[in-house]
Amino acid sequence: MDDLAEVHDEGESQIRGSVERNPAARYVGFVKRSINQPSRYAFVVILIAGLAIAILTPPLKGADERDHFTRAYQIAGGDITVHKGGQRYGAILPSGYEQDISRLSNTVYLNPDHTAFLNLLGQKAPTGRRVFTQAGTVASYGPGAYIAYLPAIDLGNALGVSLAVEVYLARVAGLLVFALLISLAVRRTPLHPWLFVAAALIPESLNQASTVSADGMTLALTSLVIANALRMSVGLESPSNRILVETFLASVLLALAKPPYVAFVLILTVPAWKHRRQLALPLGVTVCASIVTSGLWLSYQRKRSLSLDLPHLTLFSGLRSDYAYRDIDIPQQTAYLLHQPWEIGRLIWNTLAYQGTAFPKQMVGLLAQYQVPTLVVVLSVVLIAASCLIADDSPVVQLQLVDRCGLLFLSAGIATAICAIVYVTANALKAPRIDQLTARYFLPLVAPVLLGLLPNGNYANIAKSRVVKAFVQIGLVAVLAITIIGLNHSFYGPSHLV
User: Fold this and answer.
1) What is the residue extent of each domain of the chain?
2) The whole model's pTM is what?
3) Is pLDDT at 293 greater than 60 in this prediction?
4) Which of 70, 254, 382, 400 is an S-S bond match for 221, by CB 3.0 to 4.6 Å?
């Protein structure tokens, strides 16, 4: 037996030595480990597919990207305040900025030559005296949603590059931060890491992360806060100071991102109560700081937001909405919902029934002006569901009822708040449904809702789990590949203006 053991040990040593001497074997081993580790898989696929989307999408072709970039450009200059010009809100920027951004926007949207914007890459940075520049409906958005873009924009200003180049620099910086935060959230979560991966890699999620927007950062911060809350709640180990600090920073940044997602920081009260001797103080401070910060910014923002009563506005299709952007009366609409709070349920039902399949298609695969094929939408939904069936590495982890109820209650509250905000601020008084309810706003709710609904335990056997994992890994790559090919054809194919 000893001789057999020596032979076995010698054989393993020879294999290790062969691998160490063979760079190709080391590379293959690294790739295999990366594919099987969800955090590494997420980071690599987000970067590769996200860079393709960022590069292939012409500048300012993201959802409201012109306004989001203007807000980020202002904050990068050290000014987070909201300025007013006539009936509009915006920023005080060099006069050349408005000229350059308008030229770039007109070239991208109106020029029959879809590559004409490339001629603007070599322009100089905008200069001139500082004047008012409007930033649309995002003029009062908090700085937390744009923090990832600031170093890239500052770098572009220091180098004196054109606005078109700065848009690309901002996209790359935002994508890198998104990849890091999602990878960190996947590593932190004590269960269902592949659910976080799939939710971040469906086309619309990755598109928001690959263009200048407020949604990518909001999704990443929400994922990290929830993952850390679950990790501390299950109590497998004492949370390090590093986890407490990153939870605090993520929560405060989320408070300064898009409302009302800051409500997810309330899930931290669960581990704070469960382990109150150790976590009550740090997590209590985190929750209070986040809620107070959000409240202060919302109070500031409320008086500096653009009115959406725009009766002559037409949608991208050229049609007018039945109820959105006209006959808006925010005080009366608010009073209407407060006196009949259950009315919001009927409005949501009417809205979903009216939109039908359009809502999930927009939520999963509406990349600004490009809608991915229905087959890709269906496959994306299937992949998210399949990611829930992958066995956890630590099947001993159990979510208690309070964790599940907390996730579901907060998700339902945030979804209701989103619907109420859009109804009050953008729809006619007592409209029978909520027109222009943007489906991507619900993307951060995908992971917490499914986590709240999924059963405890390692309910998938190892053999089936490996098959499901391979299906999810290959499927996500396939979905993104099809999306990128379609995106390229949509933006650079024959012009509809010719």
Assistant:
1) 40-492
2) 0.89
3) yes
4) 254
